[in-house]
Structure formats: C-alpha cells, structure tokens
Amino acid sequence: MKNSGLPVIFVVSDSIGETAEFVVKAAASQYNSGHVEIRRIPFIYEEEAIKEIVEEANEFNSIIAYTLVLPELKVILEEAAGEKGIPAVDILGPMMNAFSQIMPGGPRLEPGLMRRLDEEYFHRIAAIEFAVKYDDGKDPRGLLRADVVLIGVSRTSKTPLSMYLAHKRMKVANLPLVPEIEPPEELFMVPSSKIVGLTIKPEQLFEIRVERLKTLGLTTSASYANMERILEELDYSEKYMKKIGCPIFDVSNKAVEEVANFILHFIKRREATNDR
Fold this sequence. Notes:
Blueprint: E1 3-13, H1 18-28, E2 37-41, H2 47-57, E3 60-67, H3 71-84, E4 88-90, H4 93-100, H5 119-133, E5 148-152, H6 158-166, E6 172-176, E7 195-199, H7 202-215, H8 227-244, E8 248-250, H9 256-275
Parallel strand pairs: 1-2, 1-3, 3-4, 5-6, 5-7, 7-8
C-alpha cells in the first residue's frame, strides 16, 4: 500500500539535478500551491541505483523527473518505472531531439557538461548530499555505504563533523546512540575500521544541552539535560563503542576542525595499513 502523504517527486540526474528540480518546482506551483516533497538524487550512473530509486518511488504517490543523457540509462529508468506504473518525465529529451534536427552531428552525451564539473567538485557535492541523506541515523542503509560512520550521544558534534568531512569529499553517515533504542543491525555489519566513536566530558555535555534547551525555548529541567541521564547515555555509548572495537575520540573543548583532522589522520593510517 502506497504512502498517503504528500506526493513525492523524485528528481534523478547524472549531474547535480538542478535543472530538473527547477522545472518540477515550476510545474508544482500550478497545483495546490506546490505542496509536494521533492527528493533530488544526483550523480546516478548505475542500473542498480536506478532500480533502487524506482522501488522507493513505488512506495509513494510519485513522479520521477530525470535528466539523464546516456540512452541506456534512460531506457532502464523508463522500463523500471513503467513496470510499476510510475510516471517518468524526461526533462532534457524533447529539447535534445529538437536540437538534433538543426545541429550537425550528434550530441556528445557527456553528463554535466553545462557546469563542467571537475572531479574534486563532483565528489564534494556527492559527499555533501550523502551526509545530508544519512544524517542522524535517518536511514541505516547509509552506514554500509559510508567511508566513515560517526557514533555517539546527542550533541557530540556528529552533524558538523559529517558536513566538514563531506567538504573533504568523504561520504559520512552518523548515528546517535540512545539507551532506549537498540542500534540498527547495519552498524554491526560495518568494519570497525570505518567507525569512529565520539564522547565528551559529562559536565560539558550538560552545559551544551542546557543551552540547546534554552535556544528551543524549553525548560532546562528536562531529562535531556539531567546529569544522571547524561551519565547513563555516556556509559551506554561507551559500552557499544567497546563492543564494536572502534577508536573513541573525546571532543571536549575541541573545535570541529581539530576532531576532523584526527579522523582524517585515522583514515589515512587505516588506508596505509590496508595497502600493505
């Protein structure tokens, strides 16, 4: 049974996907004030990825809008979407067909020519998209695809670190450890060499959480900023970090850049060890 929430428009591209997203937003604005959810999925080059997207789209009242220049990928998407009865809209196709009638020679069929993305920029954008998608344990499947998995209790800089490392072209997923919630089984399928545990002194975590509650306009008497609760969470997270066997880094009084540099150094040592 399909999800009955907002219609979901999947924007699939072999580049960034901005073109298709702009067209989708323009069309959506003509219907119900544009109340749709848009999920942009960039840098798609593989058949398996396309089929995964179609399977996910099939769970919703959805449309797939795409900008794929490689004919074989367009065929795969159209066939997979057609089997599920999902409307698939080729944003570039009609215009490229029109150009073929007036321009000599055929199209170059090279993704991303408009922006001429260099390799570094390409990987950085993909890593940022990855970090956003798999932030805060949103989808545990991302743990298996990440270069690095950050784990720790709430307010140990997992999200800022993920974004900082993403700008270094690393695919990072992060997962909060909460006593009432058993970690997903995917976490234990990730090699410990790809996991970094983050911890913090309880007194500093207490201060950070109190300020967080004030910012949200909430009472500071909430259990979130209770010292007994904080000690419980830290003990729980340390237990799982030791069980996994991952390195543990104390972020107390440290800037994001300093922690990130530790993680990058750890990864370089890991890669050097693997190359031996």
